[in-house]
């Protein structure tokens, strides 16, 4: 079956087998920032945005994306021009191995799109489905709060 969608702002079309998962197709097409973690939607390593909402791509079968928009970490920023959330993660030391980082950043992005003034509790709730086994969550929450302030145009002290 042929599936057509928008991926990172560009038209995307491919032939897929029944039951094929979004995480596998994205990675096969070179979008390796989407990580494969648990395969059961528990860890958040494979989070992408489906029409702006975070989803575990390991649970999304390809027919579901027909006509929709997918954003992966590659669509948010680049190494030379990172998104402010990516910059904040680096500055706050909110990364270690980096495996969970793409999913965390995309979940944070979705939160800040709908709530530019989150509380620390809002951030924790938005990241609830993203597991980190290296850094803990204090620096990650700090990074999202820093990014929110920057995106609002506030100077950081």
Quaternary state of this entry equals single chain
Mean pLDDT: 95
Q: What is the CATH topology classification name of the largest domain?
A: Ubiquitin-like (UB roll)
CATH architecture type of the largest domain: Roll
End-to-end gap: 54 Å
Unreliable segments of 5+ consecutive residues: none
Helix content: 25-40%
Class of the largest domain in CATH? Alpha Beta
Number of strands: 5
The assigned structural class equals alpha+beta
**Rough outline:** globular
Share of β-strand residues: 5-15%
- Domain count: the total is 2
How are the strands of the biggest sheet laid out side by side? Answer: 2-1-5-3-4
The CATH H-level superfamily of the largest domain is: Beta-grasp domain
Number of helices: 5
Radius of gyration, CA atoms, in whole angstroms: 15 Å
């Amino acid at each position: 079956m042929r599936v057509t969608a928008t991926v990172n702002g560009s038209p995307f079309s491919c032939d897929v087998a029944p039951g094929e998962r979004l995480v596998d197709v994205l990675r096969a097409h070179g979008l390796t920032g989407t990580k494969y973690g648990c395969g059961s939607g528990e860890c958040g390593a494979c989070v992408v945005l489906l029409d702006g909402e975070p989803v575990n791509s390991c649970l999304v079968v390809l027919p579901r994306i027909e006509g929709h928009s997918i954003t992966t970490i590659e669509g948010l920023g680049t190494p030379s021009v990172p998104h402010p959330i990516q910059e904040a993660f680096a500055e706050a030391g909110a990364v270690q191995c980096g495996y969970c980082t793409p999913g965390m950043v995309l979940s944070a992005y979705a939160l800040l799109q709908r709530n530019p003034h989150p509380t620390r509790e809002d951030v924790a709730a938005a990241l609830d489905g993203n597991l980190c086994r290296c850094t803990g969550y204090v620096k990650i929450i700090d990074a999202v709060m820093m990014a929110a302030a920057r995106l609002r145009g506030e100077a950081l002290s």
